[in-house]
Predict the structure.
Amino acid sequence: MKTADTKRLRRAGDFLLHIPAHERPPPAHMPSASSANFRTSTPNKAMSSRHSLSFADDSNMLTEEDIRVVDDMFALEEDLFMAARECFNSKEFEKTAYILRECKNPLTRFLCVYSKFLASEKEALDNWTYRKGSRTYDERPTNENLPSLLNTLSDVNNSDPANPRNEMDPFLLYLKGVIYGALRRRPEATECFILSVRAYPWNWSCWLQLGAMIEDPEEWTSLQEHLPDHPVTKMLALRILVEFNAPPETLDDSVNELTELFPHSLFIRSQKALLAYHHRDFEEAEAVFDSILEIDPYRIDSLDIFANILYVQQSRAKLSDLAQRFIRTDKDRPEVCGLIGNYYSLRCEHEKAVKYFRRAIQLDPTHLAAWTLMGHEYIEMKNPHAAIEAYRRAIDVNRKDYRAWYGLGKTYELLDMTQYALHYYQRAAALRPYDSRMWTALANCYKTLTKWNEAIDCMKRAQLCADTTETSHFLFLAALYEKIGDIATAAMYHRQCVEVSQKLGKHLGEYSKSCIFAARYEIDLAANRGVMPTPNTEVPDLQRAKQLLEPFIGANVEETPVAEDLSRRLRQMGVN
């Protein structure tokens, strides 16, 4: 039914264009930005705040006469625009561009050039798919028409009566930035996006493209002075802080500030859930996503993150229910395909999981989560080379995502290529410096390379980021210090492991080796004191050794015979 209606509308537009212009019915004019009665749900487009390609502030404001010229120009081209829009909605991009080829208004010109861009992207993708498997096959589609489109945009404002100040429309600037980005000319793209959001700050797509251009927090800090003082600027700042894993207190302040401005914004709530997810507070993240779906049961944005949370939580029933609900809503969204892939992965049906992750990539080749999760599945299927390819494609999509770098490190570590693994773990740790897993992975690599001091430094950094109830870091550090012959420090970490384990009420078998090591150290220190010269000035504490061995009385663990032997040595030293 929808297709039939679209065809009828497109045919009506064709009929209208064949009527001579002086005989057409007067168009129902769209209200201009200068109309006093014009109201929308978002603020009006600020026509008077456009900027030139320099970062000037208010030197190039359009006058009321300039705005009137723009409105009159659009009134003359409105019939063409309405007909072209129906062709655009039908994905007839080349015909859309042909209809608007002689239009002068910025709105119609934007639709014309944007249609050319989409048509050229589709052609590049078709050619790339056709060459798949041949010698001329590239890793990604190549759009050879981008330079000509860029020239079109560079000349679009020349001799334009609708643009008397020789300026470019903010949406044309946005499109120019997109093309620069596709050509990998990052500085020019960044400048275009900044100028566009300064002229019209409510274009969220432009903000997202600007965020994609930023490679590190220092660059974001340097760009902030060129951005408008606007609520959307704060929204992008929150998104970038989450992406770069900023400290939790900084993110909490940003979330609270934006929540006061937009108390009912689901986007802000989703960022709060992402914040909890990145800090591995999965229960809090799940609760926030549950509240979002209660408000909007059909919201698909960030659904793949929610699926990851349920996967980690092993919530198979809830993940199944969510998959069944959204496959009926829109099965052709990459987020939904990722959700179904997570469900099959949780059921250990890795082939089916790969099928759905690949489907998500076919729908959106830039869907980062699908590439990364597909790499994880290939690891489970013992196919490391396919996993490496998937992780590399994820890095091509977004070099700021730590999961692909960490996945590459893990894969090369499985292949016993430790130097390669070390490089990728270093990249992951640079992107996520507050995650103990990154530093633990680095410590493991340095341990394999017998670089004990570097391994100790990394493990200490991991201990700072880890949960205080985690005992594995104490054992790792104790083993490293034992390797370099620092038995006193190794015994200290074993004692800390015992203290934490006893506070948590763990079974003796989980920390018995640490008890034995620490007790033996005290006994050996007392036995050798005065006999063997040693730089260690620590006084042996035999009462401490006795306390460490007391839990073994009547216990049925593997180290019980060793503990009894140490207890006999203590009695021989006069400790009862």
Q: What stands out?
A: The two ends are 92 Å apart (CA to CA). Confidence is low (pLDDT under 50) at residues 6-12, 27-62, 530-536. DSSP finds 28 helices and no strands in the chain. The CA atoms of residues 165 and 404 lie 47 Å apart.
